[in-house]
């Protein structure tokens, strides 16, 4: 007589069966090619020793969602490898990652030197939130090493820059900044979101803290959200403690989706970089374009440094100051969307004046070169002939 699964559990009520059915040990004769999503918020242990080992960190094991999931752990391992660091920490957003990185190091009375061109929300964090905690912040032109050095103090703990700045694509000299920061007992922090490790790896040039918004190039398809810090095991441990207390946990689904996108990062970045260079070369010669900002143009102020640090391309970002920008955006409607983010496989436009840098005072926006007519262009991986045709028809 054949014994069915139901016969094995005949002593249990249907209510019990409904709760427990299917939770028996999984077969181990094969493994999935793609890691499954571990959506469980809590994990069970066979005994007190196993639980104690997980809670103490002696044995790597998931136990509670806020402390991390197997999917998050897989993503952390992958990103540490890609950025060339000892460890990594994923978080609920890019701002959660950068906040945890800073708060792991800083205390009341410390000082930060930062590029004035950083992402608008990072600027607000440093200009408004940190002073409330008794942390001093100096804003400088990070491309002027003399200005950076003059801002350093005995209590400076972090120098922070972006590898390629948002939105004007300036290129700080990361190796020189690392030497300068380390010579004064400070750490160098680099937001590498615009570049990705496929085109630049700041840790290999001396950076101590490397952060990303993973919803950009790392996931690459506008369908996953989170942030990451890549650093030494010691710095990641400090940041993880702060992150857990603040509750900035990345979801298992976002970690899983980012892992899927990560598999094509190298291929995508080659296409993004080549297409962006081609678009920049066309726009810079058009009479309706007042200015184009892209490191691959020979008139870029850091062109030679960029060619040295980024021998394999600069990613898909550029910015252009367009004559009658509203009409240009309208002419592209239905082909190239206006969307306040970046790094999708399709090309998108963004308006820094009213989105990423909206929180900055108008005078500061203009001082940084962010005008009402400036459009940030995230160039996708489409056929370059189609892309250039779209831009040229909209301009003409």
Describe the fold and architecture.
- With 396 residues, the chain is α/β, with parallel strands linked by helices.
- Helices cover 38% and strands 14% of the residues.
- It contains 15 helices and eleven strands.
- The protein has helices spanning 5-8, 14-20, 48-56, 70-83, 94-103, 120-132, 145-151, 174-183, 233-246, 252-262, 265-283, 303-309, 325-332, 362-367, 384-395, and strands spanning 87-91, 111-115, 136-140, 156-162, 187-191, 209-213, 227-231, 289-293, 317-322, 348-350, 374-378.
- The protein has a seven-stranded mixed sheet, with helices on both faces.
- Helix 4 (70-83) packs parallel to helix 10 (252-262).
- The longest helix is centred in the C-terminal third of the chain and has 19 residues, at 265-283.
- The radius of gyration is 24 Å and the shape is globular.
- The N and C termini lie far apart (80 Å).
Brief synopsis:
The protein is an alpha/beta fold and 396 residues long.
The CA-CA distance between the termini, in Å, is: 80 Å
Order of strands across the widest beta sheet? 1-7-6-5-4-2-3
Count of discrete alpha- or pi-helical segments spanning 4 or more residues: 15
Report the strand count: 11
- Determine the fraction of residues in helical runs and give it as a percent range: 25-40%
| Helix and strand run | HHHHEHEHEHEHEEEHHHEHEHEHEH
Determine the mean pLDDT: 93
The SS-based structural class is alpha/beta
Radius of gyration: 24 Å
Unreliable runs: none
Coarse morphology: globular
């Amino acid at each position: 007589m054949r014994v069915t699964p139901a016969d094995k559990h005949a002593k249990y009520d249907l209510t019990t069966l409904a709760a427990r059915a299917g939770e028996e040990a999984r077969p181990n004769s094969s493994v999935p090619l793609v890691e499954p999503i571990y959506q469980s918020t809590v994990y069970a242990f066979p005994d007190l020793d196993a639980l104690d080992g997980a809670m103490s960190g002696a044995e790597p094991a998931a136990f509670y969602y806020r402390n991390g999931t197997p999917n998050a752990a897989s993503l952390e391992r992958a990103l540490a490898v890609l950025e060339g660091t000892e460890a990594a920490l994923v978080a609920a957003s890019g701002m959660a990652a950068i906040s945890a990185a800073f708060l792991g190091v800083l205390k009341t009375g410390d000082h930060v030197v930062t590029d004035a061109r950083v992402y608008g929300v990072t600027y607000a964090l440093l200009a408004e939130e940190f002073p409330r905690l008794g942390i001093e912040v100096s804003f400088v032109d990070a491309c002027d090493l003399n200005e950076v050095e003059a801002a350093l103090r005995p209590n400076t703990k972090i120098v922070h820059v972006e590898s390629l700045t948002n939105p004007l694509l300036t290129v700080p000299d990361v190796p020189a900044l690392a030497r300068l920061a380390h010579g004064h007992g400070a750490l160098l922090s680099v937001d590498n979101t615009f570049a990705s490790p496929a085109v630049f790896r700041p840790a290999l040039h001396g950076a101590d803290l490397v952060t990303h918004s993973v919803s950009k190039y790392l996931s690459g398809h506008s369908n996953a959200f989170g942030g990451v810090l890549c650093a030494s095991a010691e710095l990641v441990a400090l940041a993880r403690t702060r992150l857990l207390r603040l509750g900035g946990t990345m979801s298992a689904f976002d970690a899983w989706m980012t892992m899927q996108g990560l598999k094509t990062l190298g291929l995508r970045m080659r296409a993004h970089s080549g297409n962006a260079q081609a678009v920049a070369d066309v726009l810079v010669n058009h009479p309706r374009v007042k200015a184009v900002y892209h490191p691959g143009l020979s008139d870029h102020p850091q062109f030679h440094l960029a060619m040295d640090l980024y021998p394999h391309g600069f990613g898909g970002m550029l910015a252009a100051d367009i004559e009658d920008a509203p009409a240009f955006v309208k002419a592209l409607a239905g082909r190239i969307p206006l969307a306040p983010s970046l790094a999708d496989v399709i090309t998108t436009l963004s308006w820094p004046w009213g989105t990423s840098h909206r929180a900055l005072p108008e005078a500061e926006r203009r001082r940084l070169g962010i005008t009402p007519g400036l459009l940030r262009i995230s160039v996708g991986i489409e056929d370059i002939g189609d892309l250039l045709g779209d831009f040229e028809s909209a301009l003409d």
